[in-house]
Amino acid sequence: MLQFLKNIKGDKVIWIIVILLSIVSLLAVYSSTGTLAYKKQGGNTEYYLIKHFLILIFGFGLMYLMHRVKYTYYSRISQIGLLLTIPLLIFTLVSGTNLNEANRWLTVPIVNLTFQSSDIAKLILIMYLARVLSKNQDQIKRFKSGFLPVIVPVIFVCVLILPANFSTAAILFFTCLVLMFIGRINLKYIFTLVGLGIVAIVLIFALAKVFPNLFPRGETWVKRVDNFINKEQATSDATYQPDQAKIAIVSGGIFGKSPGKSTQRNFLPHPYSDFIFAIIVEEYGIVGGIIIVMIYWILFFRVVKIAIKCQGNFGAFLVIGIGFSLVFQAMINMAVAVNLFPVTGQTLPLVSMGGTSIWFTSIAIGIILSVSRRSDMELKESTEVEFLTEPGILPNAISG
Hints:
The structure is a single chain. The chain is mainly α. The chain has one domain (2-399). Helix content is 70%, strand content 4%. The protein has 15 helices and three strands. It has a three-stranded antiparallel beta sheet. Strand 1 and strand 2 (102-108) form a beta hairpin. Helix 5 packs across helix 7 and helix 6 packs antiparallel against helix 13.
């Protein structure tokens, strides 16, 4: 590991965090896919472990490639990406692969690879938002030239994601609000957006309750929120997933049952994705759960540190937006597992079993590392210039 870290650029702590989360992911996925292996692979419990390992390895490759690209290129990529993303989201809503009562997946022909268009959309939107905020800082407080260029793409993308994936749209919208605040958008516009967002959510849920078929997953949204708010009145079937997750967490105790000894993996519908944190706590205890939480907070701390030392606004906004999105999603996933939040279907980044979702997360972290790599180079260059221009140093160097 030490030799590997010597040959890469960017924030070394983030590289270590990625490696640690990948190891945790392999252990947790291997433990939680036993029942799935017996159902679909004839008891071959190594199948999903090997598959997940190969996905992680390819993710590392993507991360490495992204971190070698100069991060300023992502500014131009976001322009083209946004023009392609909106039609892609529309196509997904109309003709996407239906899963869990919603068209949220697209299938690549020939290779038969499926992915969620929202994964691309949220990454492209954050990049584009970072670009617009950085370029419009001189007039960022104005409505027409500062606020409108920011909010229009945000509304378009979030509204197109919302019908099939409410939680992803909400997380992305909140991330954009955080970026707007950091980007010095007028606070009265941000507070207006927050108010309109709350009204919109209440209206959507009211409409979904009165007209269950209005939205693809409207009935599911209403049931999940109602069951979370009225836990005592909800049926056992309605609270089955959070109840099984709570049993897993309670039975884990302080130090856990030890790796591979989970029992709730046999009862939770998705122990390897949505509720993988509950399995981790069951096997590694509250101590293990706290360590995972701390790892994500350390990741965010490093992201903030990169943003602070970044010499360009675009790089700073880019890493904050991507970093906050990843960590916020992780906190939502873990909050759902401990029953502090309604079931959302959000995965735990770099830990939950997945294919393209892990790859898009790897690309996102690669972009963060790209900014870190370039910032380190700029800092080194500026330090060398300061050293050479100190009194007595430059003349001597020239005369030598």
